[in-house]
Design a protein that fits this description.
The chain has about 80 residues and is an alpha+beta fold. The chain has a single domain, classed as Alpha-Beta Plaits (2-Layer Sandwich), CATH 3.30.70.20. It contains three helices and six strands. The longest helix has 8 residues. The N and C termini lie close together (about 5 Å). The structure holds iron/sulfur cluster (SF4).
Length: about 80
């Protein structure tokens, strides 16, 4: 699976890093950053390969609580 943040939509509220600090932090640019992710230069999104189990933990909470709905897990 892939964990993705649509960086352009992020408002830097910090919710994701609060509920799931293992994977998310706020960057110097005031937007969320997925720890260990790579930047997709075509889309401007950050992407990280994760397992199905990881997607069920705090990542799921972050997906559900992001006010901009800019965090996604896709197969
Ligand atoms: S919860 Fe969403 S809007 Fe808030 S910092 Fe995280 S990715 Fe950005």
């Amino acid at each position: 699976m892939k964990l993705i943040i649509e960086k352009e939509k992020c408002i830097g509220c910090g919710t994701c890093s609060t509920v799931c600090e293992k994977y998310f932090e706020l960057n110097e640019d005031g937007r969320a950053h997925i720890k260990g992710s790579v930047l997709n230069e075509k889309t401007g999104n950050e992407e990280l390969e994760i397992g199905d189990k990881e997607a069920e933990g705090c990542i799921k909470k972050a997906v559900e609580s992001c006010p901009m709905q800019c965090i996604h897990t896709i197969k």
